[in-house]
Amino acid sequence: MKMKTTVATLVAVLLSTATSFAQGPTVRVLISNGFRAVFDELVPACEKSIGQKVTVQSGTSTSLIEKVNAGEAFDVAIMTTEAMETLGKAGKVSARTPLGRSGIGIGSRAGAKKPDIGNAEALKKTFLAAKSVTYAGDGASRPHIDRMMVTLGIADVMTKKTLFEQGSVRAAAKVASGDAELLITLVSEILPAPGVELVGPLPMQFQNYVSFAGAAGVKSDNAAAGKSLMSCLSGPHVAATLKAKGMEKP
What we know:
Blueprint: H1 2-23, E1 26-32, H2 33-50, E2 53-59, H3 61-69, E3 76-80, H4 81-89, E4 97-109, H5 120-129, E5 133-136, H6 142-152, H7 155-160, E6 162-165, H8 168-176, E7 182-186, H9 187-190, E8 196-201, E9 209-216, H10 223-234, H11 239-244
Parallel strand pairs: 1-2, 1-3, 5-6, 5-7
Antiparallel strand pairs: 3-9, 4-7, 4-8, 4-9
Helix pairs in contact: 2-10
């Protein structure tokens, strides 16, 4: 009888713990598309570590700042370092933690022949031969892409056949569906995109890196869990995941 009581008590405790985990507070995260693949890989272990579930809203850093300025509540923000500096100056987030960086690459529809982008001349020919290209009009990599087109001397030509999208997810979908031929965005956004394959990174003379950082929200009522989540996402153990997802330590 005593053993049965002990087993019953243990089961009750386990059920209570599971229910508490499921119904307890959640860590609300606003995250840029560029870091989303790394985050999705790490978050199950992080949820176990902090004992709370995580809910996510993703988008470009520009769109997420607009949400914050409109009053969106959050516990953790993960965006480009420039966006996080803006939030810091506005008193929206606490001390920022560097998380990773990614270079810009080219993607094409899965199964399609990969074009040559090995040097400036090859890249120029590939862009001119493409029926259309797409990238996020509000993305962090756009200024670098625009400067590249100017340097290549094809800015006017490419503007006429560029499909600007709101965010890299929608841009990638254009390539997967065949509505656009080439995707230009961060490597970390190309690798997880369904129906899209990485052609390769831009040649070094055009390469630029976009860095990401995270921080707990100043007005969060769950700041302790938010800071614990940041620790989980920034430890030395994340290096392999960063590399697999097209990123590297900052």
